[in-house]
Amino acid sequence: ARARQALALLVPQEDYMAAAFGEKKWWNECYSFLVCKSVYGTEVGSETYRKADPARAKKLMADAGYKGEKIIISSSKEIASIAAQAEVLAGGLRNIGVDVVIEWADWGTTLTRWLTNKNPPGQNGGWHIFATGNSWSTWHNPLTNVGIILNPEGSWAGWPSDAEGERLRTEFIQATDQPSRMAILDKLHRRLWEIVPYVVTGQYDQPYAWRKTVTGVLPTSKLALWNIDKQ
Fold first, then answer.
1. Model's pTM, two decimal places?
2. What is d(CA 83, CA 90) in angstroms, rounded to the nearest whole number?
3. Could you say which residues of the chain have pLDDT below 70?
């Protein structure tokens, strides 16, 4: 977990968000694995990571066993916000002496690589890190947030395994009332910040625009292309 902890201390969230989404009105700092301001959007356990500390990040990388190997970031320039975060990440790693390269590809190839390639980094498409974004619609609940599935059989390729975190996530899902869920959530979220399955880089709003002649647009977190009418 030390290398992931290092990444969490590497760069301020505002650097990622400003590079990816521009003006502050479109984004906020957020230290919840489950979407800030959602029902389960606690930030408990994140206190250590709310201020970037490159010196500590460098030590954690050394403690993790880093000895100058080339670190591969997999990304695509076809989605500007993802490419921008990859660049910020690479810059932060270089600042602490890490040898890093971004390997660019089209979005389809990149996504397939993330989800299916289990080869060691540097071998037949294997990778170390990627930057991405996800939607409130699935990320706000331990049941649907694939990033906190801590059983490699059910999560993304390359994801960490943690029996304690997965036990707590399962307990949350199986709880039969909301007070029980909230009590388990506190323990789960603290555990997530101990193992850092992924690094939270902030939270952004997705703006949508349409002409006055277009009606029936539904207020959803993902643009729903039904119920639409044109006058």
1. 0.90
2. 11
3. none
